[in-house]
Design brief:
This protein has 365 residues and is an alpha/beta fold. It has nine helices and 14 strands.
Length: 365
């Protein structure tokens, strides 16, 4: 069957090279005579996989030596609780509310500590990144949390002159959910106390979460924190305290190899910016279709757009499928359309989408 261009926000498309490699090694990985899914996580063969994945990620993201990389199950949603459990000191944290997942993180953290929402863009349906009034920040907060890229609403914290850059948190550790933008553009890891990212967008299968945490933030978990929710458990045992998600980590390693072979994150960022510019370049001048995000804050991973007519939106999604362009429906909470163009989406896929947009515009004036 011919493969389609899959614009799903997650689980999303993976690099064909990584999928092909996994297919070829499905029955016998590395000459072991068994699949990765069958081998012991304590075996020499698997230790090479998990340690190799860690070293590759450390290399392609330039992770400093004083940070630990942890492989944890439960996706990013489990981190909504693990972060407040592990960074607990005064029992207070600052959060910026920029989308649905940021709101979920706030709700979960509120179960364990006092949350101070220092800025929100809920007033305009999360279509922009709000300005931060530093006077509202708590200089004694346990941490400051942002969702750096908002999958549903297509906004992101950007860096550079005149943009909504990362908040200046002083000595308060900056924590981010990087699920939908990790490996898509270059980030200075040292600016963050902790980064977490669900794998199912730019890394691999759903279920795995990557946590990159500064070492001084490990070992200060709230008393009574369950063993399996304590970062120290994973750091002390190289993410092997119990059976990890072995196949997901193996797939992540293949994707990390693919990123490195493509020239690293900086090269992928160039392609991602080109893809986003192509899509927005059309939408900004379209008559029927229109983008929904403030230009300054646009994500290069998730591009939402609408016609303004629900029936016409549904027509767009249905007809797009006949052209091999699938999973373009917007999130159920907002409707419309959304094109998620993660690393594995080739430039040709975005060009095909724009060609279809042009056709749709001509036929639906």
């Amino acid at each position: 069957m011919e493969r389609v261009y899959n614009f799903s926000p997650g689980p999303s498309m993976l690099p064909l090279e990584a999928l092909s490699r996994a297919r070829d090694e499905m029955l016998s990985q590395g000459g072991t005579g068994m699949s990765v899914m069958e081998m012991s996580h304590r075996s020499k063969a698997y230790l090479e996989i998990i340690h190799g994945a860690e070293q590759l990620l450390r290399e392609i993201m330039s992770v400093p030596d004083n940070y630990k990389i942890l492989f944890i199950q439960g996706g990013a949603s489990a981190q909504f609780a693990m972060v407040p459990f592990n960074l607990f000191r005064a029992g207070r944290a600052d959060y910026m509310q920029t989308g649905q997942f940021a709101a979920k993180a706030i709700d979960e953290a509120s179960r364990f500590l006092t949350v101070n929402v220092v800025a929100s863009s809920k007033d305009k349906k999360y279509s922009y990144i709000p300005e931060l009034d530093k006077s509202k920040c708590d200089p004694e907060a346990d941490y400051f949390h942002i969702t750096i890229n908002n999958t549903i609403y297509g906004t992101r914290f950007t860096t550079g002159a005149g943009t909504s850059g990362l908040p200046d948190t002083g000595g308060v550790p900056l924590v981010t959910d990087m699920s939908s933008s990790i490996l898509s553009e270059v980030y200075d890891v040292s600016k963050f106390g902790l980064i977490y990212a669900g794998a199912q967008k730019n890394i691999g299968p759903a279920g795995l979460c990557i946590v990159i945490v500064r070492e001084d933030l490990i070992g200060r978990a709230k008393p009574g924190t369950p063993v399996m929710m304590d970062y120290k458990t994973y750091a002390d045992n190289e993410s092997l305290y119990n059976t990890p998600p072995t196949f997901a980590i193996y797939m992540a390693k293949l994707v990390f190899e693919w990123v490195k072979a493509r020239g690293g994150v900086a090269e992928l960022q160039k392609v991602n910016e080109e893809k986003a510019a192509l899509a927005y370049g059309f939408l900004d001048n379209a008559k029927v279709l229109r983008p929904t995000v403030a230009p300054r804050d646009r994500s290069i991973m998730n591009i939402p757009f609408v016609t303004g007519d629900e029936a016409l939106d549904k027509k767009f999604i249905k007809e797009a499928e006949t052209h091999g362009l699938v999973s373009l429906a917007g999130h159920r909470s907002v409707g419309g359309m959304r094109a998620s163009i993660y690393n594995a989406m080739p430039l040709e896929g975005v060009k095909a989408l724009v060609r279809f947009m042009e056709k749709f515009e001509m036929e639906n004036k």
